[in-house]
């Protein structure tokens, strides 16, 4: 489950690509593939820290600034760095994407609570309290 705590502090369990793949939501997979001009079978992901992703998702994960940086520093998460929060993470958190705004606070929570506890909290947070359906960031798709 630790694969769902992205190096930057994103919760991959609420990622639309992850949810579409895990939930086997063929309509959402088709929509995402069409938006990105890729084949539906390229929408495969088990989380940012996983090695199970295919062409489209792999390109995004492979090119991740934070994964490259943490790998070079031989750490897993940005909060483990003595330069946290760095300029790149701050810029990422202000890039206009709503789910990116929480990465610095998330990272601080992970550091305080520990990865496993933070993941349990996120799993509950991103689940409908009524039907228990897993939710994702792209509210328009829920």
Brief characterization of the structure:
The chain is mostly helical and 142 residues long. It has one domain.
Structural summary, described in words:
This protein is mainly alpha-helical and 142 residues long. The chain has one domain. It has seven helices and no strands. The radius of gyration is 15 Å and the shape is globular. The mean pLDDT is 88.
Offer a few descriptive terms:
0% strand, 7 helices, mainly alpha, 44% helix, 142 residues
How are the secondary structure elements laid out?
Layout: H1 16-22, H2 26-36, H3 55-62, H4 65-72, H5 87-93, H6 103-113, H7 115-125
Helix pairs in contact: 6-7
- Total strand count, please? 0
Termini Cα gap: 23 Å
Radius of gyration: 15 Å
Low-confidence stretches: none
| Oligomeric nature of the chains | single chain
Specify the helix fraction band.
40-55%
* Percent strand: under 5%
Structural class: mainly alpha
Order of SSEs, N→C? Answer: HHHHHHH
* Tally of helical runs: 7
Mean pLDDT: 88
Instruction: Give the biggest beta sheet.
Output: none
Number of domains: 1
Shape: globular
